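Give me the fold.
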Amino acid sequence: MSVGALIEFYFKLIICITIPEEPIDTLSEKPEATVNDLLIILRLLKEQGKFLVLLIDNYDVTLRPNSQYTKADIDTFVSQCRTLAQSEEQNISIVVTSSRRLSQIGPELTPDKSPWYNGYLFENLKPFTNQEVNLLLDRSESLLGWKQAIRKIADGNPALLQNACFLLYEELVSGNNLNEKKFIQEFQTNTLHLFQAIWQLSTETEQNLLMLLALSQLEGKLGRNRYTLGGIEAIFSQKQIELNNLVERGILKKVEGEENTTYSFCSSIMEWWVIKQIENSQEEELKKRQRGFLNLMSRQQTTRVNTAIRWLWQNKDKIASIIEQVGGLLS
């Protein structure tokens, strides 16, 4: 993706709107559209009393550099978006969706410029509440017997819930003989890319917290003489901002107790996926995480976590069935 390609796409899309032909013919003859051409389009639309709304999904993709899309291109892109939004015509709104707050991603701020994202009003798309999930699932009699399974793998996460309901509806309409184990296995196959995206879009600190939570919850399922973490609650109490971000994204859920607050995974498949990430990691990757672990906990606690991870590496064949049960993949 490039700045020019994106502007070219918007330009061709907009000129499909009924606008006097002569100026459009002149603009369409240009080899490459620019933000100035879009400003001309805005003026033409204003003359017709029209208002342009640009809906951009996955906006965060435009803020990640690659081999053909440099940081300089990103700076130009966000600057030109700002130019459009602040045009004197005032007949355009740009609505974007992003996996994270724009203030957490994109070009770094410099003292000589105001934040590039301050023209956007942030509205957090929160997970569905228990009441909202129940209202959704209660609308179809065919889903009533599957509420527990759906809540186990999706809870209130909108993307996971949508995928779970769609998959289940298709299977039931097709008349397939479906049980909970098969349903969860098919859901896992169809949504692994979503869990991978969740992981990749998480910061290093968030990933480390997810690993600690997965190891802690797995510890309780392994019985005696396995590994001992201890002190995880104290670490979590110091990382409320990161944990709240994970809750807002529908990855974790928070349970307020009388004495303390605990966290768990919204999806059993996400918990399984994090454990598999730990299992499949290598010594070199573990070494790279040392600094991140030390920022979260003491050196002694870090040693315990490393011991737990290495124990998983050495015993993953012995505990494979337990890990499958974590994800609900075994009945």
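The radius of gyration is 25 Å.
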